[in-house]
Structure to design on (247 residues):
């Protein structure tokens, strides 16, 4: 059984990715920060269809906690799956902040940097010894790195940085046959940044070729597909999942 670690797997895109990966026969370790109840609900959904998953707490902004998290992962792999390693890492955890450049504080800037770029960098570094050769790293970026959207400059800048980092991961980890790709969602109906009101959703839908905003499962299904052998020759790419957003 292949095993995936999905950060931020208690809600939104991460929860959908966890559920869809489990439906494809993968074991799942999902992380949550504060809401254990939501994480447990995702696990219950997975177990209801015969899957196997567990939740571990992780604050992606606290890199000092990563070694202890790695130890918990090692213990979970051995006790639940009788394995010393895992196969896939999905760096998904994050949050949105909508402020114009002139109003962004240094604290807000640093928070977004820590969760969207520094966190994935050092978490990947920390977990790499536990990843099986031939594994796959999938980084969650954003279509805002391609389409400039007023009010999300720091968020988009760090997502763009994560796209560049993805290519370097593919280059540097190639000796172990570890692939690295990025998945770039367009507008999705989630809680990120406070969610979408009806008027804003209608505006976004008018900018998408397929005429609607995305649902979490549109991205979750893509994650499960990219991690599978069906896409084993895709590497060092950023793949936009947006229904054709501003084309």
């Amino acid at each position: 059984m292949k095993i995936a670690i999905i950060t931020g797997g208690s809600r939104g895109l991460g929860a959908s990715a966890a559920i869809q990966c489990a439906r494809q026969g993968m074991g799942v370790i999902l992380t949550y920060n504060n809401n254990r109840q939501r994480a447990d609900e995702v696990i219950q959904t997975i177990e209801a269809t015969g899957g196997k998953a567990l939740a571990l707490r992780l604050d992606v902004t606290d890199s000092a906690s990563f070694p202890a998290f790695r130890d918990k992962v090692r213990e979970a792999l051995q006790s639940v799956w009788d394995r010393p390693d895992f196969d896939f890492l999905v760096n998904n955890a994050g949050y949105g902040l909508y402020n114009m450049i002139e109003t962004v504080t240094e604290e807000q800037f640093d928070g977004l940097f820590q969760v969207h770029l520094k966190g994935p960098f050092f978490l990947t570094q920390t977990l790499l010894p536990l990843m099986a050769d031939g594994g796959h790293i999938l980084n969650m970026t954003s279509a805002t790195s391609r389409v400039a959207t007023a009010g999300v400059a720091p968020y988009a800048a760090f997502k763009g940085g994560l796209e560049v980092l993805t290519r370097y991961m593919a280059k540097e980890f190639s000796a172990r046959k570890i692939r690295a790709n990025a998945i770039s969602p367009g507008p999705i109906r989630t809680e990120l940044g406070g969610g979408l009101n009806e008027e804003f959703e209608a505006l976004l839908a008018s900018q998408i070729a397929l005429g609607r905003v995305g649902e979490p499962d549109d991205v979750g299904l893509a994650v499960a597909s990219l991690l599978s052998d069906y896409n084993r020759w895709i590497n060092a790419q950023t793949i936009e999942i947006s229904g054709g957003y501003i084309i």
Summary: The first strand starts at residue 3 and ends at 6. The helical segments are 12-23, 36-48, 66-81, 106-127, 153-172, 198-206, 216-227.
